[in-house]
Structure formats: structure tokens, C-alpha cells
Amino acid sequence: MMNRxxxxxxxxxxxxxxxxxxxxxxxxxxxxxxxxxxxxxxxxSASIKAAAKEAGVTLKFADAQQKQENQVKxxxxxxxxxxxxxxxxxxxxxxxxxxxxxxxAAGIPVILTDRAVKVADESxxxxxxxxxxxxxxxxxxxxLLERAAKTPSAALNIVELQGTVGSAPALDRKxxxxxxxxxxxxxxxxxxxxxxxxxxKGKEVMEAFLKQRDKKIDVLYAHNDDMAIGAxxxxxxxxxxxxVDIVIISIDGVRGxxxxxxxxxxxxxxxxxxxxxxxxxxLAKEVVAKKAVEKRITVNEGVFPAEVAAKELPxxxx
Length: 318
Ligand code: AHR
What we know:
With 318 residues, the chain is an alpha/beta fold. It has 11 helices and 12 strands. The strands form 2 sheets. The chain has a 6-stranded parallel sheet with strand order 2-1-3-4-5-11, sandwiched between helices. The chain has a 6-stranded mixed sheet with strand order 7-6-8-9-10-12, with helices on both faces. α2 (39-55) packs across α10 (277-288), α5 packs parallel to α6 and α7 (199-211) crosses α8. The structure holds alpha-L-arabinofuranose. Keywords: Signal.
């Protein structure tokens, strides 16, 4: 016969069991990635996968191949699977209200990483973690303003390779850059087109820019390093010297950009840090535990001109 003390102990253990199980159960995170369009994106995906493993988070990862409809499908499947938290890097800024309302109705919190969204109701996502893209555009332009101040020329014609149409980094990097170059009327954007954040498209669009011979191109502003690297090939194939005949400014700070700077083919890169994995996992745990978190968390980033490339290259982590 079980005595009273033993019965009470058993009862207490049975009552505590669900709470203990909940504590021990690994958190499941459904992540929808934009695609694999750039060196930056590859580093970002690797960081998320490694950090999930390290943090004991069960990660469900889907690559949307740069298509919003694939991201919507992935988010809906995470809702159906009842994951604990959803995180995604939205390919474009708008068109998310419906699916985010579905996640909210299912009681699943959503974290935005890398790219932001435009929604009527900001409570549809809990928090954003990533870069300040407007500031990145401003940093790129400030570097050019300083250089232009030292260059005694009448005009500096700029061509711009934009990122994916409608994406937060393309919109914000354009805005930040334009805001700052206004200070010097010598700086004019003469052509601007999307290179979709890829090397192949960056090369193709740069070739088209170079073929239009009505105006001399002095500067290339590329919204990411991959497009700049593609454009460098186009410039060389046109018989010009990238980094010398055409000044090249880009964003990300990937290893490929540092190699191009070391070779004298790229003039400056503005850092955009893809290593968001560890912070995302910590944030996911806090969000699931219903702790208060900041609505917008941005990371600190630098500017690397070609002069420091050789010294910095061995320290680069992506
Ligand atoms: O959203 C971040 C941007 O997306 C990176 O600058 C670019 O390389 C990537 O494709």
C-alpha cells in the first residue's frame, strides 16, 4: 500500500510533468529564406542553420527561390505544422498582410529577419532583426561625396544597379544614396536598373549601360557586391579598367568584394552583416517565452575602402 507521502509526491510529479516537458521540448522554428542569389545570402543561410544547431532549435528551412508565392506557401505550411515561431526574410516589402494575419490567428509569432515588410498593422510581426539599408545607401554616397570633393571635374555620371524590384534593400539603398548625393549637383544618376542582386544580371545590365554611348560613365553604384562583381567583368570585356576608369561602390562586404578591392577593381564596399543566426535564435527563444523584445533591432556595420582590403581580408568571416 502506498503511504500518504508517497502518494503526494507522485501527484506533485504528475502535475509538474507538462511544464517540465514544455521546458525540455526543443523549440521549432519555421524559416523562409529569399533564395540563394548572392554570396551574402549563402552566408546568411549558413549562419542560420549553424546557429539553430548550436542553440538546440529544430529548424524547418525553405528556400523560396526569390518568389513571394513560395514564401507564402512556406509560411502557410509552417502554420499548418504548428511550429512555435516563424521567421522569414521577405523577398519584397508588400503583399504580406493576409498570410501574416493567418499566422497571428493561429497564435504563431513572426520575426522578420534581414528585410522588412510594409503592413497596415505592425502587430502582425513581433520584431525585425537586420541592417539599416537606408543608412547603408547614405554611407555609400558619403564616401562618394568625399571623393568627389577631391576630384576637380565638372560632372560625375553615376549608373546604378538596383537590387530586386520592390525589395526593402533596393528601395532603401536607393533612397539613402539619393538623399546624400543631393548635396553635390555634380553627382547625377544617369541610368538605374535592377540587376536582381545576382552576378549574371549585374553583368548583363552593365553591358547594356556600356553600350549606350551618349554619356561617359564615371561611377557605378551597385546595391550589392555580386552585381558589382558581374559588372566588373562587363567593364573589362568592354576594354575598360574597373576601379580606375569607372569608380565602383557596392554593398555587403563579402570576401569576393575584398578580393576585387585587393586587385584594384572595386573602390569601396559598405558592410551588410549576414551573420544573423545566433541573434535570431536568441530572439526566437525570447519571443516564444513571451519576453518583451525591441520592435526593430539593427546591427553595427562598417565601410571598407580598397586601401584597407588587403589587411582586412584575412579577418572576413563571410
Ligand atoms: O537583403 C540583403 C541583400 O540581399 C544583400 O545585400 C544581397 O546581397 C542579398 O541578395
